[in-house]
Each structure stands twice: as structure tokens, then as C-alpha cells.
Design goal:
By secondary structure, the protein is mainly alpha-helical. The chain is 58% helix and 6% strand. A four-stranded antiparallel beta sheet has the order 1-3-4-2. The radius of gyration is 23 Å and the shape is flat.
């Protein structure tokens, strides 16, 4: 399993390196072409828009690969921590299976509506890495105050704090690994919300 995880991690790293190299290649090509078309304003404007759109798409792909890599690393760390010589055997699933009414016997089991309610909850994850106490800077405190108003996705947080998407992604990764926020991996872009630990960082004004 560890070898498979290493191979997947290596593949994701190779994909990230490829997209980064491709983005730099497009940027160099854009600069070379912009020098040649300086005399034509209309043509330069059209090429600028086309290349700018390509750069944005490449940027989004790189961020998506980085986010997937972060999720994979969290799962690998969680699996590594769970595997030890004294680890207990996995607990069998005790959820009751549907059965005909005539074959049902009285038992103290969770009701079916409760099971369906639990399955309908969003896939919000907290960090599997042991949380450490962190001191929030001004930008991180602003993010905590924004999330106190309700869950927000990465794009909303990027617009609110006025940073680049790369900086915002690194900032949210730090808060996620510190246990300050929880992340919903089922959405793209990711949706974040405060944890109980994160609410302790709120000032009386923002709470």
C-alpha cells in the first residue's frame, strides 16, 4: 500500500511539475510575441486576452493538482498513523441491513431514518495531522472572522482577503492542518468552515 501511495504521490508531483513548466513556457512565449506585435494595438489586445485566458486555465489546473496532492498526503499520513503493530482489528460495520417486515425481529438498533440522515451529511473533513497551537497573523484572523459568518469557498476567501489564489491556498492549508477550519472535499472549489477550535480564535467583536 505504501508503494502504491508513493507512486500516486510521484505521479501527482510529476503532473504538477509539467503544468508549472507549461505555464512558464506559455509566459515566455507570450513575452516574445508581445515584443513583436507592439506596433499593432488591436492584434496585441486580442493575443493578450487569448494568452491571459490560457494562463488562468493553467493556474486553475495547477491549484487543483496541488489541492489533490494535499488531500492525498493527509490520507497517507492518516493511513500511516493507523497502521501499527498493536493496532486493533478493524471494527465491523454494525449497521443493520434492510430486511422484510415478516423476518424482522425486535432489537435495539438505530432506525433507518437516522441512517439516511447520517448518509446525507456533507463530506466535511478535518485535518488528520495532529493539530498544533498556532498564532494567527492579521490575514488569518480576517479569514477566521469571515468564516464566523458562515462557510465560504476558496474563491470567496481569495476575493475577500485580496491575495493571490496560491497564497490563499497555502493560508487555508495552514489553518486546516492547525485544526482551525474544516474542509469539504466534495466541492470544487473547496468549502471551508470554522471548527470548535477555530471559534476560540474569534474576538468578542467578531463573535
Amino acid at each position: 500500500m505504501a508503494l502504491a501511495d508513493d507512486l500516486v504521490t510521484a505521479a501527482l508531483l510529476a503532473s504538477t511539475a509539467f503544468f508549472v513548466a507549461l505555464a512558464f513556457g506559455l509566459l515566455i512565449r507570450y513575452r516574445q510575441m508581445s515584443q513583436r506585435i507592439t506596433a499593432s494595438t488591436d492584434l496585441g489586445h486580442d493575443l493578450w486576452q487569448a494568452l491571459d485566458q490560457r494562463m488562468k486555465k493553467q493556474d486553475e489546473r495547477i491549484l487543483d493538482v496541488m489541492a489533490r496532492l494535499d488531500v492525498l498526503q493527509s490520507r497517507v499520513l492518516a493511513a500511516t498513523a493507523a497502521q501499527s503493530p498493536v493496532s486493533p482489528p478493524p471494527t465491523p460495520n454494525l449497521a443493520p441491513k434492510p430486511q422484510p417486515v415478516q423476518d424482522a425481529i425486535p432489537s435495539v438498533m438505530p432506525s433507518t431514518p437516522l441512517t439516511q440522515h447520517q448518509e446525507s451529511q456533507p463530506e466535511t473533513r478535518t485535518s488528520q495531522v495532529p493539530a498544533q497551537e498556532i498564532r494567527l497573523d492579521e490575514t488569518q484572523s480576517k479569514v477566521v472572522s469571515l468564516l464566523a459568518e458562515g462557510p465560504k469557498n476558496t474563491r470567496q476567501l481569495t476575493d475577500a482577503v485580496g491575495l493571490s489564489r496560491e497564497h490563499t491556498a497555502r493560508l487555508m492549508k495552514t489553518l486546516f492542518e492547525g485544526g482551525v477550519v474544516a474542509r469539504d472535499d466534495a466541492t470544487k472549489p473547496f468549502v471551508y468552515q470554522l471548527t470548535d477550535k477555530g471559534r476560540r480564535y474569534l474576538t468578542p467583536a467578531s463573535g
